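Hi! If you just cloned this repository, the fastest way to understand the data is to look at a raw example. We've pasted two of them here, unedited. The first protein comes first, obviously.
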Amino acid sequence: MTILVTGGAGFIGANFVRDWLCEDRGPVVVLDKLTYAGNLGNLAEFLEDPRLVFAQGDICAADLVARLLEEHAPRAVVHFAAESHVDRSIDSAADFIRTNVEGTHCLLSGALNHWRTLSPVAAREFRFVHVSTDEVYGTLEPDDPPFRETNPYRPNSPYSASKAAADHLARAWFQTHGLPVLTTNCSNNYGPYQFPEKLIPLVVRNAIRGQALPIYGDGRNVRDWIYVSDHCAGVRRVLEAGRPGEVYNLGGGQEKTNIEVVHAICAHLDAVSPRPDGKSYAEQISFVKDRPGHDRRYAIDSTKALRELGWRPGESFDAGVRKTVDWYLDHLPWVERIESGDYREWVKRQYEDLHL
């Protein structure tokens, strides 16, 4: 009953693996390249667990993918591995094309070859779950209804374009070859173990250090936020009960502007870890020049997942963001350990010269 999880040492993948093992759902093989955002410390307490096998490697390495599939004969592949930060994709898209497009192609091809060797029963039960993003749908106007699975693809960043390409490959491998592929498109994740280039951990990190809290443009870009454990539960339900060939949107149903998110973080920090001078962390907010092609609003309609799978998110944003801030406050050494010199230089290039 083994599953293969790609990107299992990254933010969402590690949370998925941790939840899976905590619920004793079976053995897991994790394939992760351990790039800047992948961290074995995310799985530290399970590294000696016989249910976990870790393989460091690239999803573009066809021989490695084939060997893992042959040796461990997983009943499913859950594909989280991706380059995912929009700003980095604008700076340089090559890694996004390689990992998100070429890597997904390599996994689909390897899974297809493996699937064709299975017995009829095992082949019927095999699944390939491709985890994607709502950003493939583009942007919404303020009064537009949330994204549904039938929305056309209109990606606006190199990142979202690379994920859209991967989604199309996943669909093609089902339509052409019959590989039992399912795709999920999720909203903005937050929670423990997120690399501090993303908004929420970046704001917590900078606030505690007395640094500026950078917000793009006017701060009124809207995102639909989902707590990472809710997202992982949705992926599990898709794996368990989803129909091959289908797409399932997994959203938190919690639309917030970026400035609302930052104020919520500051308010909780003011309560649990006040500044020495007694002032609010909100005074550290600093608006910076907007990034190119910045989508104005995302929102997800998860009706299909509720109707077909009985899944819905359980964590409110207010409670989830407090839990997340508390986790980062309790794990500041974790943040220090994972911040490489390259990351610090990237933050400097990205934000310090953009203040309005």
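Ok, and the second one:
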Amino acid sequence: MLKLIQRTFTALSMTLLLLATSWAQAAAENPKDFVQRISTELTTRLVKERAAYKKDPQLLYSIVQENIEPYVDFTGFAKGVMGQFYRQATDKQRTDFTATFKQSLIRTYANGLGAYENEKFTVKPYVAGDDPKKAQVDMDIQTSSGSIVPVTYQMVQDTQGQWRVRNLILNGINLGLTFRNQFSSTVEANHNNLDKAIANFVPSAGEVKKDIK
């Protein structure tokens, strides 16, 4: 009798697991819809709360954090930025770097979005690649001056089948690669002391901003 109960419980557990996996896969958005949704949610809130965050810059940081943090694979993004130094780093150094990088990246987004003035954006049709767990979605942003800024979202699926942004290519500049080069320079400037490099690293997208007018 005990063995029968055990077998029944095992079968039930496997069935629930398969159902959960199927549900997660079914619930996964089309990559284009994902980018459209998170972009619309963020810009809608920026418009709605513009007067408030113009008076309180910290509110803008909070808005960006709440609307970006759930959708970015900061751990994977940070690993790519650390590059060769990721293998050398301890678990604590990796954790510290990820935390520092996340704060800096959100602040960079907030600084850039502070000047948002109802710019229009168009998400292009999604073309699937060879790897179903990776996706690349292109978007065009029309600035107030009428120029077009191309943006590419490079994404991966998490264990729940949901999309997470792993990297951005903004106006032709690969931010992940740019930040990796900056971190490498920071390590060199700190005489290969990873702890100091992590503490002093501030990723900058300044060159990208100069090109966007």
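That's it. A detail worth noticing about the second one: The first helix runs from residue 2 to 27.
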